[in-house]
Design brief:
Elements lengths: L1 H17 L3 H12 L4 H7 L8 H39 L17 H15 L3 E2 L5 E3 H4 L24 E3 L5 H10 L5 E10 L11 E11 L4 H16 L5 E8 L2 E10 L16 E10 L1 H6 L8 E8 H9 L12 H4 L6
Parallel strand pairs: 1-4
Antiparallel strand pairs: 2-3, 4-5, 5-9, 6-7, 7-8, 8-9
Helix pairs in contact: 1-2, 1-4, 2-4, 5-10
Bound molecules: 3,4-dihydroxyphenylalanine.
3,4-dihydroxyphenylalanine binds next to strand 8 and strand 9.
């Protein structure tokens, strides 16, 4: 029996040393030390031994068991260390590699300009309102004093969706929509930014989609001098306190009288240069006193209420502010162009 134990020990030690991983090793441990293992079996058979042999075999069995146990533990530590080393090797990080760049976005320049202009008008007591881009013929034209067949409709070539629906050609319909909501009671004091669409061929100064900001102030006793004061305050805030404005008579069907507003040229200070085409002035927006018919159609009594309105092209304000020479840059999403506006 002592010999059998000796043999078992040799076999076990051999198998332990050959175990390549923790699982195999565990197998070996269970095989030799488990309840159904050969050592347990030897111990069970001890009853048949003589009184002299019994302690000797018992001692040997314990010795063998302990040795196997110690070897299993040693091997187990070895295997664990090896596995850890392999993992460290495999998962090692090259700390000399440069980090991955996190690309930071920027506000689109048109968004930046819209938000800046909104802020100025909010400071002057206006509220920001929006309207739909798919608009009815009624709001886009009729409610603005442009009945069907009116020749001024030709000024704005439109994208019609049905006979009665179109992509709005201007933000002015928001005037009519907002006045209707107020049900004849002033004041209405709003600015409305948004996209508008016209059937234009795209070039450096035209785009079939562009942005406008509309303004409307209706109350009792609003006068032309209010129009001039508000627009002057706005222009000086946006372009700089040294800039002047000039009103020129013009025509819009929804205003009477109508004016075009120019700002003194920021490049030459009014002396005349290439940017202002030698005139010293740059046209920036259309405006006027709201036509009595427009007030009336939207539920305001023109004998009680008066108002002024204005509309401006956002791209123009962005071109002038940032010295951009082609409106198409705003819509082609070239990252090299957009990247330059991180600071605005
Ligand atoms: N809607 C006009 C256009 O797109 C711009 C405009 C002019 C708006 C005068 C106004 C205004 O509110 O009073 O050409």
């Amino acid at each position: 029996m002592i010999e059998r134990l000796q043999e078992l020990k040799q076999e076990a030690l051999q198998e332990i040393s050959e175990s390549g991983n923790v699982k195999d090793l565990d197998h070996v441990r269970v095989k030799y030390l488990g309840k159904k293992g050969p050592i347990t079996e030897v111990l069970r058979g001890m009853g048949k031994l003589s009184a002299e042999e019994r302690p000797l075999v018992g001692q040997k069995a314990n010795e063998v068991r302990e040795e196997i146990q110690t070897n299993v533990e040693k091997k187990s530590t070895e295997l664990e260390e090896k596995a850890l080393e392999e993992r460290l090797e495999k998962e090692s990080v090259d700390i000399t590699l440069p980090g991955r760049e996190i690309k930071q976005g920027a506000r689109h320049p048109l968004t930046a300009v819209v938000e800046e202009i909104e802020d100025i008008f909010i400071g002057l007591g206006f509220q920001v309102t929006e309207g739909p881009e798919v608009e009815t013929d009624y709001y886009n034209f009729e409610a603005l004093n442009l009945p069907p067949e009116h020749p001024a409709r030709d000024m704005q070539d439109s994208f019609y969706i049905t006979n009665d629906m179109l992509l709005r050609t201007q933000t002015s319909p928001v005037q009519a929509r907002t006045m209707e909501k107020h049900q004849g009671k002033g004041p209405v004091k709003i600015v409305c930014p948004g996209k508008v669409y016209r059937r234009d061929d795209d070039d450096a100064t035209h785009s079939h989609q562009f942005m406008q900001i509309e303004g409307l102030f209706v109350d009792k006793g609003v006068r032309m001098s209010d129009l001039k004061g508000v627009l002057e305050a706005f222009v000086k805030k946006y372009f700089g306190a040294e800039r002047e404005i000039r009103l020129r008579p013009s025509f819009f069907p929804f205003t009477e009288p109508s004016v075009e507003v120019d700002v003194s040229c920021g490049i030459c200070g009014g002396k005349g240069c290439r940017v202002c085409k030698q005139s010293g002035w740059i046209e920036v927006l259309g405006s006027g006193m709201v036509h009595p018919r427009v007030l009336e159609m939207s539920g305001f009594d023109p004998k009680v209420y008066s108002g002024f309105a204005f509309g401006m092209g956002v791209e123009r304000f962005a071109l002038l502010r940032y010295g951009i020479d082609d409106i198409r840059h705003f819509y082609t999403n070239d990252i090299r162009f957009l990247d330059q506006f991180k600071w605005v």
